Amino acid sequence: MNGSRSMLRLATAALRQGSSLPGSAGKGAYCKTEFLVRGYAADADAYDKMPDSGKKPDSGEIVVEIPVKFNLHLLESGPPQEAITTKEELMKSYTDMSVIRRAEISADMLFKSQMIRGFCHLYDGQEAVAVGMERALTFDDSVITAYRDHGIFLGRGGTALELFSELMGKKTGCALGKGGSMHLYHRKHNFWGGWGIVGSVPPLGAGLAFAHKYMKKPNVVVAIYGDGAGNQGQLYEAQNLAALWNLPLILLIENNHFGMGTAEWRASKKVTHYDRVPYIPGIKADGMDMFSVREAFKYCKEHCLAGKGPIMLEADTYRYHGHSMSDPGSTYRSRKEIQGMRQERDPIERIRKIILTEELVTKEELKDLDKKIRAEVEDAAAKAREEPFPSDDELFANIYKADSGLVAYGCDRRKTKVEMP
Amino acid sequence: MLGALSRNRPLLALLRGGNGGDKAASAALWAASKRFMSSDNTITVREALNSAIDEEMSADNKVFVMGEEVGEYQGAYKVTKGLLQKFGPDRVLDTPITEAGFTGLGVGAAMYGLKPIVEFMTFNFAMQAIDHLINSAAKTNYMSGGTINVPIVFRGPNGAAAGVAAQHSQCFAAWYGQVPGLKVLVPYDAEDARGLMKAAIRDPDPVVFLENELLYGESFPVSQEVLDPSFTLPIGKAKIMREGDDLTIVTFSKMVGYALKAADELAKEGISVEVVNLRSIRPLDRETINASVRKTSRLLTLEEGWPQHGVGAEICASVVEESFYYLDAPVERICGADVPMPYAANLERLAVPQVRLGSVGLYGSRVKKRCADACM
């Protein structure tokens, strides 16, 4: 920890001496241009390395190094710095992450052609968090997140068609078109949304964990929030309750270092999250490395199921798009930084390199897979465009679960007065 | 008397001492049951709420209670008395003083399928958690296309008590009543308290249950039917407490008692008042209200809360929309004064509607004048 803070100071000192970005204010965030590419890890060179990997003889298993060290808080030992994987897992993870990436690119285009309205918060760049998490969980574990939920929804087994339908407000959407981008749900796979209010998720997640414990389920709850939400009072309240009542709750912080446009060092007195609570242990993982996330989640799930209470998992990650589609994402960070992240820490590239180095498939086969994924995602988007909008009666449906005999009014009270059957 | 006891199965089982029941708890319940067995069957609103929650918790393992001081303290207003001893700390939870946190926790638990009863020590403190009430509870079934419902009850005292001043005296009926996705209930007497509480706990939607501190200790006679564990009241139906022909007073909660007293006084002057006890702010029983006004031709709404955009405003609008041609006089509202609640006793009396017994008082004279005008 101390190592990373001094790295930070060295990095910023070095940059202040030399940085002269075109069009930059010369102060504040623009001084700290490239350090995000390096992250906070004490071992900054780790990012330049292609992770070492090697096949275990005869077993078909592949050992992948996790270059960036886990930071630990209140823990004697942490997850291992290497992951054991298989060709199947690598190919599935590559596919899952690529589907998320392509879906977000399609969503970008759909928003620009005004087929998606309102807010659209994209997840590209953060794929390793959603997919690494799912590698360590089952669909009996519960996940709840905030509004940047497209990737989490897909990771939880939601289909691209359900996603695009919901984004475009069609009745085949996962919330029948009534929720939209920020309100995606998949109850069957224990994905509890999709919430628009920053900071509201940790208490809801604590409630899900409370219910899991009450019903004696052998499962965990992952409540996801961002660095921007990390200063919310109700987060602290939820942490207190979870620790006091020993709830099986993993608090995942998707730290992409910007709360909307405010860099974390301008919002938080303390920029790390995993070590903020003196009575809840925490791990900081490399959120751009799927295996780092996977190993951290395995560790956290074991911790919770052993009855040790809640745990914090901070994933150091990055979003390529701005906060939402109305944010170019470059007024508060440099294009150089975004480019640097794409070049040096892209989560999909990382897996691609492992696959090709291990010669699991040929370059051509991988290219074909890319094309196939792209086609499938674009087909889903095209199909969703053709789906119908919800019927007008849907306006008054599902306000309540028990609505028999209830009366609801439309705008013109004389013309539209609906009584539920 | 034994008949009454035999129908109260959970009570009987405990008194028999089954399950190695705690002797002290049995003794306490025996003492409590004596109240149920009294020949005139009178119980307080507090006992009504306590027994309703007790019975629902016995019937359904998923129901649990959460709030500040609900357990070891026996409830800040003793509504949850005895529940911790009976159901244990896994189902009766004392929370830290963190409304936003524990309300969100309750909503999350309800989404997963439990049935929380979240107590706010008063609804003034619920403002700290109002985001979870509205954005996390009320809107979820709709936003999720009907896939996730939230079967939660938020309960606690609402409105003015006595001498607790500005920050502890607000009536929230109008605020919560406006929100589609919430059901808002306002019991008056013991029958209301029992029936509506049971209905609220069984309801699969979020229910805001607005009690009144000054009513907790009031006793009301109840029938055998009301004491039965299966007794519930329908949500969204008002009750005609007293029939009349000259004027309809529509009101709720503590003001129902005031309206009934005023009706008695007005009867001496030959004015026949019909008192409608709303029981439910949302859904609002417009049918009963309008049917009553069409009979009497005059409407007076009565509430303790602030006048602007209050409950009375909606009732007046509803009657003007649906029964305009039946009205013999403009609709009238009596509300709390448009001020934060003052502390001094004389000012507090000016801030909340009063029944002036003996002389008919401010609104009585207005009512009399209206009735007299119509007769000319």
UniProtKB/TrEMBL annotation, chain A:
Alphabetical keyword list: Oxidoreductase, Pyruvate, Thiamine pyrophosphate
Enzyme Commission identifier(s): 1.2.4.1
InterPro entries: DH_E1, PDH_E1_Alpha_Subunit, THDP-binding
Reaction(s) the record says it catalyses: N(6)-[(R)-lipoyl]-L-lysyl-[protein] + pyruvate + H(+) = N(6)-[(R)-S(8)-acetyldihydrolipoyl]-L-lysyl-[protein] + CO2
Enzyme class, UniProt record, top EC level: oxidoreductase
Cofactor section: thiamine diphosphate
Start and end residues of each Dehydrogenase E1 component domain: 96-390
Compositionally biased region (Basic and acidic residues): 334-343
Region Disordered, residue ranges: 324-343
GO BP, sorted A to Z: pyruvate decarboxylation to acetyl-CoA
A GO molecular-function descriptor: pyruvate dehydrogenase (acetyl-transferring) activity
Subunit structure as annotated in this protein's UniProt entry: Tetramer of 2 alpha and 2 beta subunits.
Role, per record: The pyruvate dehydrogenase complex catalyzes the overall conversion of pyruvate to acetyl-CoA and CO(2). It contains multiple copies of three enzymatic components: pyruvate dehydrogenase (E1), dihydrolipoamide acetyltransferase (E2) and lipoamide dehydrogenase (E3).
Entry-linked PANTHER family: DEHYDROGENASE E1 COMPONENT DOMAIN-CONTAINING PROTEIN (PTHR11516:SF61), PYRUVATE DEHYDROGENASE E1 COMPONENT, ALPHA SUBUNIT BACTERIAL AND ORGANELLAR (PTHR11516)
Protein name in the entry: pyruvate dehydrogenase (acetyl-transferring)
TrEMBL record, chain B:
Function noted in UniProt: The pyruvate dehydrogenase complex catalyzes the overall conversion of pyruvate to acetyl-CoA and CO2.
Cofactor(s) the protein needs: thiamine diphosphate
GO BP, sorted A to Z: pyruvate decarboxylation to acetyl-CoA
Species this chain originates from: Ceratodon purpureus
Main localization, broad class: mitochondrion
Subcellular localization: Mitochondrion matrix
Protein name, entry field: Pyruvate dehydrogenase E1 component subunit beta
Protein origin, superkingdom: Eukaryota
Record EC number: 1.2.4.1
Lineage, highest ranks first: Eukaryota, Viridiplantae, Streptophyta, Embryophyta, Bryophyta
Quaternary data: Tetramer of 2 alpha and 2 beta subunits.
Keywords: Metal-binding, Mitochondrion, Oxidoreductase, Potassium, Pyruvate, Thiamine pyrophosphate, Transit peptide
